[in-house]
Amino acid sequence: LAWLLRSQHKLPEAESQAQEAFKLYWEVGGTTNDFSVQMLINLGIYYAEQSKMDKAEAANREALAHARVAFGNDNRRLASPLLLLARLLCNLDRPADAVEFARQAISVIGDKPPDKWGAYNAKAVMGRCLLGLTNYPDAEPFLISGCTGMERLQDTVPVDSKLYLKEAVQSLIT
Fold first, then answer.
1. CA distance 61 to 7
2. Nearest in space to 46 (alpha carbons), one of 62, 26, 60
3. Confidence band (pLDDT; 50, 70, 90) for 165?
4. Chain-centroid distance, C-alpha 63
5. pLDDT per position as a tens digit, 139-151
6. Which of 43, 44, 26 is nearest to 35 (CA)?
7. Are 63 and 22 spatial neighbours (Cβ–Cβ below 8 Å)?
8. 122 vs 101: CA distance, rounded Å
9. Of 82, 123, 89, 38, nearest to 46 (Cα)?
C-alpha cells in the first residue's frame, strides 16, 4: 500500500503506512525478517523524498544494521541498503562518508552475474562519490562503466529506479 501511495505522490501517507508495516513485521520476525529491513529501506526513501534528510539517514543506517544481522556482512542483499546510504550521503555533499558504503556494495555484489543493472548502479554511485571527492581519474571509469551498463539494461530497470541512471549521466557530464 505504501508504494501505491508513493506512486500517487502521497508521501506522508506512504510514510505512515511504511511505519505501520515496519512495526508489524518487526513484531513478527524482528531483525531476521526480510520485510522489516525492506520497510526501513522504504522509510528512508520516503523521508528523503520529503527532504527529511536526518530521518532518511537514520532509517538507512538502521536498515543496514538490521540487514547485517539478518544476512551477514558478505551477502548480496546488503547491496541495496549500502547503495541507498551511499547515494543519500553523496546527495548531501558528504562523499567522504559515502565512498566506503559504495565500496562495500561493489564488494558484496561481486562480478557474478556481471550483467545486472544493480552492479552498474553500484559502479555509478562509486563514481559519484569519487567525483565528490574531486578524484576525477578514479571516478571516470566507474561512471562510464556504470552509465554504459545501466543504459544498455534500462529496459529491465524498475520505473522508480530510472532516476539513478539520470543522476549518473549528469555526474558524467559535469
1. 24
2. 60
3. low
4. 11
5. 999 999 988 888 8
6. 26
7. no
8. 10
9. 38
Q: Minimal CA–CA distance to 90: which of 38, 135, 139, 125?
A: 125
Q: Which three cell numbers mark 10?
A: 502521497
What nine digits make up the cell of 153? 539494461
Q: Between the CA of residue 170 and those of 62, 96, 159, what are the distances in Å? A: 29, 20, 18
Q: At what angle do helices 34-49 and 11-29 cross, to 10 degrees?
A: 160
Q: For cell 571516470, name the residue.
A: 140
**Separation CA 40–CA 56 (nearest Å):** 9
Output the nine-digit C-alpha cell for 164.
539513478
Residue with cell 555526474: 171
For the entire predicted model, the pTM comes to 0.82
Distances in Å between the Cα of 60 and the Cα atoms of 10, 47, 53, 89, 164 are 21, 10, 10, 10, 17
Count of CA atoms in the C-beta half-sphere (13 A) of 19: 10
Q: Mind listing the pLDDT tens digit for each residue in 105-163?
A: 999 998 666 668 888 889 999 999 999 999 999 999 999 998 888 888 888 876 666 66
Helices (H), 50-156: 53-71, 79-91, 95-109, 117-132, 136-152
Q: How far is CA 135 from the centre of its chain?
A: 22
